[in-house]
């Protein structure tokens, strides 16, 4: 029997009880945290007021809960977006993913950098500054740990060959693309279409140059690589969400929106929050094989009777895949 069948039944007006200390904000608008600037959050509204940008501060009831770029938040108060107005962030909606890092491996405090990304593009220059495989591995492990799909984008292919890096990462199943000045970016655009992709890379690798090429008018400041240190100037300070133009250009109007999240250049990527189990779990086929390992097996090179080695001997696992995987394991704890 439904309520409607029951003549005269007094239907409750609210489905959820409203209590004194928990006001009901469910009618308040939701937005996406675009960037954070001196304790103020820039939030782009979604839904009815799609696209309007509002300045907001964290409401006291959120306590110490962090609000990060990419978060979907509920706003209360003045959401007109007019100069001088300030809305309050009263709720952080559940996150699909959280990309984390620690300052270094001994740092017990993990920092959540970006919420709700489903892809991570590791931007690496083939030269100037030279690639650091250890750093790429670390960022990749952070992506696997967070259930974010990693992709590798190699810039400055006009300066050096990508062959070595391609050989190091394709066995992991990680897609690799190369670019150089004037390169056709359509392959990259189709990677990004319909996704929320965070771009991570060392300063000076050409991240801003790419973002500007993808998003005309993004106005990301491009730096100059220092001739002495080979490092780029740290030109950007906060992560920022940028909307990509539709791709292909004739994509239907209701196609999934695509976002990139540009992050400031990183120099280190601590992983003290990542466990061996999480890295193994990111490779389903290998995890299955490790079911045959001795209890407590580290799966590292030389681990006695590691089932991964036996699988290679039996020709069931490509040696290059095991080697690349072990590099990942070595990056974590
Ligand atoms: N040769 C070559 N130079 C490039 C390429 N892409 C970018 N550059 C140059 O590399 C320098 C750094 O590029 P940016 O785009 O500022 O690098 P970034 O990664 O955004 O650096 P930060 O803003 O410091 O994080 C600039 O001088 C670019 O012109 C490329 O494919 N080939
Ligand atoms: Zn093992």
TrEMBL record:
Q: Pfam families given for it?
A: RsgA_GTPase (PF03193)
Please classify the protein's predominant subcellular localization into one broad category. Answer: cytoplasm
Which enzyme type, at the first EC level?
hydrolase
Q: Where is the EngC GTPase domain?
A: 115-267
The superkingdom of the source organism is: Bacteria
Q: Which parts of the sequence bind GTP?
A: 155-158, 201-209
Localization, per the record, is: Cytoplasm
| Residue ranges of the region described as Disordered | 1-29
GO MF term set: GTP binding; GTPase activity; metal ion binding; rRNA binding
How does the annotation summarize its subunit structure?
Answer: Monomer. Associates with 30S ribosomal subunit, binds 16S rRNA.
Q: Which NCBIfam families match?
A: ribosome small subunit-dependent GTPase A
According to its UniProt entry, what is the function of this protein? One of several proteins that assist in the late maturation steps of the functional core of the 30S ribosomal subunit. Helps release RbfA from mature subunits. May play a role in the assembly of ribosomal proteins into the subunit. Circularly permuted GTPase that catalyzes slow GTP hydrolysis, GTPase activity is stimulated by the 30S ribosomal subunit.
In Swiss-Prot or TrEMBL terms, this protein is called Small ribosomal subunit biogenesis GTPase RsgA
Native organism is: Microlunatus flavus
